[in-house]
Design a protein that fits this description.
Rossmann fold; single chain; globular; six-stranded parallel β-sheet; 10 helices; 2 domains
C-alpha cells in the first residue's frame, strides 16, 4: 500500500495565501490593520524561534505584529499589567504570551488574564468551554490544524473511529472535542489506558500526542489507518527531530500519514494566523 504523505507545509502555505488575499481586501475596505501582540519572557531558544516564525507569518499575510520582549526576571505583576494594557488597546486584535514562562510566573493566571475576545491561542477557560458546548470561540491552534490537514487531504472524518493518544489541555482534550464536532466516534487513550495497542488498533484515524519519541510502532496501527503525528521530540542519540510515531515502521501499513517535521508543525502557525483574522472580524461585529 502506498501511503499518502500529508504535507503540512503545502497545506499551511495554502491557508496563509487565502488569509493574505482576504487581508488585502479587508485593508482596502476598512483602512485598518489586523494586529497581533506577541509577548516573550526570557531567552528560551525554542521560544525565540517560534516567535520569529510567527512574526514572519504576520509579515507574509499582511498583519501588523507587535513584539514585547521582557527579561527572564520579569515579575508576574509586571506581565499581568502588560496583558491588561493590551486587552484595553483598540489597535490590538490578538494577544499571544509565548509559553513556557519562567518559574516565578503562574501560567494559568496569565492565560486567564487575556481577554477571551483576543485569546488567539484558544487557551482561555471561556474558549475551552465554548468548544465543549459548540459555541463560537477560538480553538487551540494545533488541534484546529489537524482538522484542516484531514479535510484538505480528503480524509473522511464522519462516522470514523478516532483514537487520540494523549489528554493534554492544549492538544488531546480539544482534539477530542473537534473530532466529535466532525461526527467521529472518539476514544481518548493515555498512560493509564489498558491494552493501549489494542485500543489504537481500532482506529481509522490515529492521532498521537504523547511526547514520547517513536512510541507508536506498526503494532499499534490498523492496516489502512490514517496516522497524524503531533509529537515533536529529539532522538537522544542524534538530536534529530522526530515524532511520537516510528515513521519508517508504520509507513507500509497506513493509507496516509504526517511526517515530522513538515506535518502538523506548520499548521499551528497557520491556524494562529486564522484566529487573528477571526478575532479582527468578531471584534468589529461586536
Amino acid at each position: 500500500m502506498d501511503a499518502v504523505l500529508i504535507d503540512g507545509k503545502a497545506i499551511s502555505a495554502q491557508i496563509k495565501d487565502e488569509l493574505k488575499e482576504k487581508t488585502q481586501k479587508l485593508k482596502a475596505e476598512t483602512q485598518t490593520e489586523i494586529t497581533l501582540a506577541v509577548v516573550l519572557v526570557g531567552e528560551d531558544p525554542a521560544s525565540q524561534v517560534y516567535v520569529r516564525n510567527k512574526r514572519k507569518a504576520c509579515e507574509y499575510i499582511g498583519y501588523r505584529s507587535l513584539a514585547f520582549e521582557l527579561p527572564a526576571d520579569t515579575t508576574q505583576d509586571c506581565l499581568l499589567n502588560l496583558v491588561k494594557d493590551l486587552n484595553g488597546r483598540d489597535d490590538v486584535d490578538g494577544i499571544l504570551v509565548q509559553m513556557p514562562l519562567p518559574s516565578q510566573i503562574d501560567e494559568k493566571k496569565v492565560i486567564n488574564a487575556i481577554s477571551p475576545a483576543k485569546d488567539v491561542d484558544g487557551f482561555h477557560p471561556m474558549s475551552v468551554g465554548a468548544l465543549c458546548i459548540g459555541e463560537p470561540g477560538f480553538v487551540s491552534c494545533t488541534p484546529a490544524g489537524v482538522i484542516q490537514l484531514l479535510k484538505r487531504s480528503g480524509v473522511e472524518i464522519a462516522g470514523k473511529e478516532c483514537v487520540i493518544v494523549g489528554r493534554s489541555n492544549i492538544v488531546g482534550k480539544p482534539m477530542a472535542m473537534l473530532m466529535l464536532r466532525e461526527n467521529a466516534t472518539v476514544t481518548v487513550a493515555h498512560s493509564k489506558t489498558r491494552d493501549l495497542k489494542e485500543v489504537c488498533r481500532r482506529a481509522d484515524i490515529l492521532i498521537a500526542a504523547i511526547g514520547r519519541h517513536r512510541m507508536i510502532t506498526a503494532d499499534y496501527v490498523k492496516e489502512g489507518a490514517v496516522v497524524i503525528d503531533v509529537g515533536i521530540n529529539r532522538i537522544p542519540e542524534t538530536g534529530k527531530l522526530c515524532g511520537d510515531v516510528d515513521f519508517d515502521d508504520v509507513l507500509p501499513h497506513v493509507s496516509a500519514i504526517t511526517p515530522v517535521p513538515g506535518g502538523v508543525g506548520p499548521m499551528t502557525i497557520a491556524m494562529l494566523m486564522n484566529n487573528c483574522y477571526e478575532a479582527f472580524i468578531m471584534r468589529r461585529k461586536n
